[in-house]
């Protein structure tokens, strides 16, 4: 199955100011998420940000919010966005959810497992998730894959959203996201 930009939403889970320094490669994680959010926004994929207890963990990184200024931001106390019942109807009405964020083995994992239980096709962007440790990140990814989520990369998301080369849109996206050193 391919990602269908007309039936998918990008859900960015808890990439928050105070939590970022605790995860593996925080600056790389932020750069990769910014690349993904910006590319999603540019190809017309809706974006939703979740925030886990923002009063304590701060808000979504400003660089991400700037990359998708019209995106919805939802708050939660449950680790899972589904359990928190904070996801907008616009996301729930679509059949596919592309997920990135942190932490892989907690909020991302619980959200993905519950999205799968709702019958959603879930794509986890493996190069745009992180945890405080490699073992937790790796086993979180493994568990999501074993449960039926599809592991993808940022470039897979972009190419599947574009579907064809040779268009003005493809040339513009290629120059912006595929040329030169990428995060």
From TrEMBL:
A Pfam entry, by short name = Isochorismatase
Protein name per UniProt = Hydrolase
Q: Which organism is it from?
A: Vogesella amnigena
Record keyword Hydrolase present: yes
Q: Which UniProt keywords apply?
A: Hydrolase
Enumerate the spans annotated as Isochorismatase-like domain. 9-155
One GO MF term = hydrolase activity
């Amino acid at each position: 199955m391919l990602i269908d930009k007309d039936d998918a939403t990008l859900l960015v889970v808890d990439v928050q100011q105070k939590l970022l320094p605790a995860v593996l490669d925080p600056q790389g994680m932020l750069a990769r998420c910014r690349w993904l959010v910006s590319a999603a926004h540019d190809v017309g994929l809706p974006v939703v940000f979740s925030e886990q207890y923002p009063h304590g963990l701060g808000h979504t990184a400003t660089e991400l919010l700037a990359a998708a200024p019209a995106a919805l931001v939802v708050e939660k106390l449950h680790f899972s966005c589904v359990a928190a019942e904070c996801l907008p109807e616009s996301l729930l009405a679509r059949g596919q959810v592309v997920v990135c964020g942190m932490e892989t083995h907690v909020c991302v994992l619980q959200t993905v497992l519950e999205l799968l239980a709702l019958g959603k096709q879930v794509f986890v962007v493996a190069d745009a998730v992180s945890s405080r440790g490699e073992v937790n990140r790796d086993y979180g990814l493994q568990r999501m894959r074993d449960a039926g989520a599809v592991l993808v990369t940022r470039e897979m998301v972009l190419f599947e959203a574009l579907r064809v080369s040779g268009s003005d849109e493809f040339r513009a996206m290629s120059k912006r996201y595929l040329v030169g050193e990428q995060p």
